[in-house]
Design goal:
277 residues, mainly beta, eight-stranded antiparallel β-barrel
Length: 277
């Protein structure tokens, strides 16, 4: 009996030692209820939402195409005549294209809507500049036959245009990357300026014969305070310097619809600064 009791006490001691050793398997003390769950910190974004306004300086290139500026003048001056119906004299391109550079300044104001790092905005910009050019004329002289008669003709013309200001209403979409906001724009544009154009044809019907008849037709147009309409595309980047101050750099392209046959487009580079409200 005594040996049985000794054996039982020995077994109990071994069991207690085993139980006492279990928590030591991970070498860290464990107290139930002592763990606290900490959720990950929310991602922070620079605030771009709300109203903003600013100013910029710009330098741009104006591309003025006068090659079709005389077509409607010629077609009207020769309407109903064989020279036009058979020889399409109005399609003679006698004026060239011009490229002109100019520096200017302007301002912008808009509103941004922000969804975390995605920015969508609407912006109005205004620029005062001066893109002005005078076309070079390349007269064309031809010997033609039309309506059963022979003709010696010479066609000449002139053209000029000046764009002194323009405005854009643009939609913007951008991606906030730290304090940097790269963006793209697309919008509508309106320009203001003036233009002139003229066309002249001189010649002789049935030259070298007793029925020779000299003739001259001319037509011209000049308009001031003209409004031109078109569309624009752009790309740029805003950089936040403080909570409310940012700087900007962008490239902008405007294509105006032809006016009296003159096509105009403007490409500008801009650098500016603005305030977020």
């Amino acid at each position: 009996m005594r040996s049985v009791l000794i054996f039982s006490l020995a077994m109990l001691g071994l069991t207690q030692n085993a139980l006492a050793a279990d928590p030591a398997e991970d070498d860290t003390p464990f107290l139930r209820g002592s763990e606290v769950y900490e959720p990950p910190a929310p991602k922070l974004y620079t605030r771009w939402s709300g109203f903003y306004a600013g100013a910029f300086g710009e330098y741009g290139s104006g591309n003025l195409d006068f090659s079709k500026a005389t077509q409607s003048l010629a077609a009207y001056g020769l309407r109903g005549l064989a020279l036009e119906t058979e020889q399409n004299v109005s399609n003679f391109e006698i004026l060239d294209k011009k490229h002109t550079g100019s520096a200017g300044f302007g301002g912008f104001a808009g509103y941004n809507w922000q969804w975390e790092d995605v920015i969508i905005g609407l912006e109005l910009s205004y620029s005062q500049n001066s893109f002005s050019a005078v076309a070079t004329s390349f007269p064309i002289a031809r010997a033609l036959s039309a309506g059963g008669n022979g003709y010696n003709i010479a066609v000449d013309g002139s053209g000029s245009m000046n764009i002194d200001e323009y405005a854009e209403l643009r939609g913007r979409v951008g991606y906030a990357w730290g304090n940097v906001l790269p963006y793209l724009t697309v919008g509508l544009a309106v320009g203001h300026g003036d233009f002139t154009r003229s066309w002249t044809i001189t010649g002789t019907e049935n030259p070298g014969t007793s029925n020779a008849v000299p003739f001259t037709f001319t037509n011209s147009e000049a308009k001031s305070n003209v409004f031109m309409f078109g569309w624009s595309l752009g790309a740029g980047v805003d950089v936040a310097l403080t909570r409310n101050i940012f700087v900007r750099g962008e490239v902008d392209y405007i294509q105006f619809a032809p006016i009296s046959g003159i096509e105009a487009s403007i490409v500008t580079g801009r650098v500016g600064a603005g305030v977020k409200f």
